[in-house]
Design a protein that fits this description.
Radius of gyration: 28 Å
Largest sheet: 4 strands, antiparallel
Strand content: 15-25%
Number of strands: 12
Oligomer: single chain
Structural class: alpha+beta
Order of helices and strands: HEEEEEEEEEEEEHH
Length: 250
């Protein structure tokens, strides 16, 4: 009798999951800007409501790791204006540069008594580059670039009052990088929502078994390496979660 009154389509539970589609939901910030804290970050806290309630895991992107080592442009400088400038007065002295079959050294020197080497007959020493100074000239103290000097840092790119240069090494930036990991794998970036509401980034890897002769000609050795890297990935999951946190935005 009750079934006839409420109908067969009446939901048997108040949970919204009954309307979920059988597929992995997408993370709302998967198209975040490249200059964000990381590719999993949210642009604003308003995107928290866009996180799917159907599944505990949201898909972000896929990539193949480990990546080959870069021969150039491997460092990304985060704070190019890190507070140090070159001392003036240095120049390149071609007559004092050492030359060989590969060319001449690009050294610099200056008319400074501190560079005179008395043990070698008063010859000025050659430097590989001009020295850097953190001195702020009195005539420059009202420049706009010195506003909030030494404070109100929002991220690494704002640090301009110290002598530390922050950079990213693109060779070790991936989650699984050489030389620790050697098995080429498809790595999925996903975000797991814990039962307590926490957001954990996860990076499950699936080894590519086809054309894996580069590891070893023996199947037993290839299986051993793959098994060892799988254990390493599971052991480092917690550290990766702390190293690549979720930025909840403003």
């Amino acid at each position: 009798m009750i079934r006839k009154l409420i109908g067969p389509d009446y939901p048997k539970t108040s949970c919204e999951c009954v309307e979920c589609e059988p597929k992995i939901p997408l993370w709302p910030a998967r198209k975040a800007r490249e200059r964000d804290t990381n590719n999993l970050g949210l642009e604003s806290k308003s995107q928290l409501k866009d996180i799917s309630e159907c599944e505990s895991t949201s898909y972000v992107t896929s990539m193949r790791q480990p990546s080959p080592w870069l021969k150039k442009d491997k460092y990304e400088l985060l704070n190019p204006n890190f507070g140090l400038t070159e001392y003036p007065g240095f120049f390149h002295d071609a007559s004092a540069s050492k030359c060989d079959c590969n060319g001449c050294e690009n050294t610099v020197t200056a008319f400074d008594p501190r560079l005179i080497n008395s043990m070698r007959g008063g010859v000025a020493q050659q430097l590989d580059r001009p020295p850097l100074s953190g001195e702020v000239l009195l005539k420059d103290i009202y420049e706009d670039s010195l506003t909030n000097y030494g404070k109100h840092y929002k991220n690494y790119s704002d640090i301009h009052a110290g002598q530390i240069m922050y950079y990213l090494d693109k060779d070790i930036d991936p989650t699984y990088s050489l030389p620790v990991y050697t098995v080429r794998s498809d790595v999925n970036s996903v975000v797991y929502k814990t039962p307590m509401g926490g957001l954990w980034p996860r990076y499950p890897k699936c080894p590519l078994t086809k054309d894996s002769q580069y590891l070893s000609p023996q199947q037993f050795t290839r299986d051993t390496v793959t098994h060892r890297e799988d254990l390493m990935a599971l052991q480092t999951a917690r550290f990766n979660r702390e190293k690549y946190p979720i930025d909840l935005g403003n």
